[in-house]
Structure formats: structure tokens, C-alpha cells
């Protein structure tokens, strides 16, 4: 699990440990990782291994890629930080064993942009489309991919981003515990895409139907009539 030292990653670590999973936790802050691993081992009786790595550095990414490619006991990969390269490293072993689970954490801003979110929305849109494509590529392999699209979640990243957590609308802010618990409930129910705060699940189905219809309408070899010059 990446990004495991705090926030969403730390809650996922606790919940999976409670389900009996041994853990490999990856994050930049070694001290926090060591403390969390000790807590999880005491609370749940599992093995928790801490690996300090900065996934913005190629050499650290390469270390985690090697781990995923060579450890035959890795069953679940949670991409809470970093997605494509680590997933590509894990997939061959998962496919060979005909089982495995990849959970990619994106954001509802994958389908929406704000004046202040151009880069963030763009990167999360990549996670969405990458995950959707991967789901189709792995459909017959026994490997599952869940995409999680949280809305505003109470993590320390807000303060680091320059937008104080205290300035956010509390009624629209979900705790990390509720977010992760909802995401895991969605996983248990067989969801491939989970929007933890969306009450009407049919809204995603309508969105997908409209997107599919729009794409199908692009498959024509001539310009649309409104673009033809008389």
C-alpha cells in the first residue's frame, strides 16, 4: 500500500489488518511508518513491513516495482499514491496466479474541473481512464480493479495544498474512516467504481451511458453537418 503513513492510507492499513492481511506499507516518512506498523501488529496480530520511499523519485519507484514483481505473496495493491508504474509491475504476477486486487484512489474531480484544480483534475482523470481501461484488459484474468472516487475528505493534504482544512464546508467533508469503510463496502458488494458520497448509484450509470453514446457518435468518417461549408 502506498501513501500509507497517514490519512486514507493509514485507515486502509488498519482496516485490511483487521481483515487479517499482512501489510507492506510504503510512504516517505519512515518514523510514521514504523509507528503505524507497530500499532497494527499489536492491535491485529499481523505482520506489517515499513518501506520508506518517495514515489516522485525514479530510484524509489524502481525499488517498489522490483518488490511487486518478485514477491509471490502480494495479493492486493492499493495505489493511494502513484499508480501506473507500480500497477504495471504487479499485474504480470497477478495474472500468472489468476488472482489479485488493485485499488486505485482517484477523486470526483476526475470527472469535473474547477478554476483551481486544472492539474489535479487532469491527473485524477488519468487515474480514472487508466483504471477503466485496465478493468477491461483484465476482465478474464481473475484480477480485479476497483476505482474509488472520493469527494472532499478530511486529510492533512488540504493544509499542505494551501487550502486550510478548517476553511472547508464541514457538511461536505467526509472523514477518512467513513471514506475507506464505504470504499471497502463497495468492494465487498462487487463494485468496480465506488463513489463513497453519492446516494443515487444510478447517476454513475447515466453518466456512463451518456459517455458511451457520445463516444459511439464520434465513429463517423465525415464531418458533422454543422461543420460543412456551403
What's this, in brief?
The chain has 230 residues and is α/β, with parallel strands linked by helices. It has helices at residues 7-18, 30-44, 58-70, 84-97, 118-137, 157-161, 176-188, 202-217, and strands spanning 23-27, 48-52, 76-79, 100-105, 143-148, 193-194.
Mean pLDDT: 90
Q: Look at the structure and name the CATH superfamily.
A: NAD(P)-binding Rossmann-like Domain
Distance between the termini: 59 Å
Shape: globular
Query: Biggest sheet, open or closed, and with what strands and sense?
Result: 4 strands, parallel
> Got a strand count?
6
Strand content: 5-15%
Succession of helices and strands: HEHEHEHEHEHHEH
Highest-level CATH class: Alpha Beta
Q: Please mark out the parts with pLDDT under 50 across 5 or more consecutive residues, or reply none.
A: none
Question: Which sequence of strands runs across the widest sheet?
Answer: 3-4-5-6
- The CATH topology assignment is Rossmann fold
The computed structural class is: alpha/beta
- Give the domain tally: 1
What CATH architecture do you see? Answer: 3-Layer(aba) Sandwich
